[in-house]
Design brief:
The protein is α/β, with parallel strands linked by helices. The protein has eleven helices and 14 strands. The chain has helices spanning 14-23, 58-61, 114-126, 154-163, 176-188, 207-214, 231-243, 273-279, 288-292, 304-314, 344-365, and strands at residues 2-5, 29-37, 42-50, 66-70, 90-92, 95-97, 103-107, 131-133, 168-172, 194-199, 221-224, 249-253, 284-286, 319-323. The relative contact order is 0.11. Bound molecules: phosphoenolpyruvate (PEP) and manganese (II) ion.
Amino acid sequence: MIIVMKADVLPESDEVRQVIQMAERYPDVHAEVRQIQGSTRSLTEIYLLGSTTSIALEPFEEFPAVEKAIRIRERYRSIGRHDRDEVMGFEYRGIEFSQDTFHVFPGLCAVDNRDNVEAMFRLLKDRGIRTTRAGAYKPRTSPYDFQGHGADCLPFVFELAGKYDIAVIAMEITSEGHVEEIHEALESAGNPTGVLLQIGTRNAQNFELLKVVGSQTDYPVLFKRGMGITLDESLNACEYIASGGNHRIIFCLRGMKSQFGDPHRNFVDFSHVPVVRRLTRLPVCIDPSHSVGKKTVAPDGLLDIHHATAQGLIAGANMVLVDFHPKPEEALCDGPQALVFDEFELFMNDVELVRDAYVNRCKLAQPAP
Ligand code: PEP
Ligand code: MN
């Protein structure tokens, strides 16, 4: 059961204490308080754990400070919608992330050198984009492939982010030490930018890593769906993050490993955008680059990457992670799927067109006044 407190009732308030006191009078019931920081306000929720099935909702709803009491019928206790019609997002570095917002994160799959990072950030600044991706730690199939420059590249990546007004960088981490390295490098650079800690598909069920990013609240998390597990398993993985206290999570669809996806690198799963939005309160990202994995062109002149992007956007995706590179032939990771700078305008114009179409589709679905 979840007791949702009225707006701006703080976790340490007397009102919350009174509700907990009453809840814990029931045998085998334990209460946990969670504060969810939204972009405009915070929300306090009290989770009643244990034998709650026979407890009535009404006595809790009689407290003046209680908004409502909800019985959790479905799974996903923390990230699920349940009967909550209000779906809160979060704000990070002045940027709002929710199921109503939309952001593009074009950038380098892997940081290779300073010149290429600078060229990328300059392109974004010229287009007024303040969000990007940049991989420092690369989990690779072969131990002989480029593994990323790691902590060595962080100082120049963060310095250039400050120079080009980049507010948020999506950056994959594969161990607890990487969070500390990122934190130290950001502090040394004077915190010129923010980092979205990316959990890659290969770590989707690395429960210890999930607990690490879930128990810190400095950085939001971009969780990439496991490539070979069910959607339910991936959503439960997000519960590991949220139940640790960090509710600032974005769920990213990136395709499923299956030969049925051939000739694409993965089977594009963007029809699950509305499913994740329905089942959870999380903003949903798509990664067309790692889903499609190559730059094949359809007869209409658009790349398969454009088409996959459009499929996600028309279904309501809130974020797009996409690989660009000034010189893909020099890229140390995933060059063949990276779009080049000459393709930037077409990509962005297409994205804007399809997002507008999605917004108009939503208006069609509204009841007539
Ligand atoms: C990436 O985004 O660089 C990446 C490795 O993605 P994924 O974990 O989805 O393969
Ligand atoms: Mn990649």
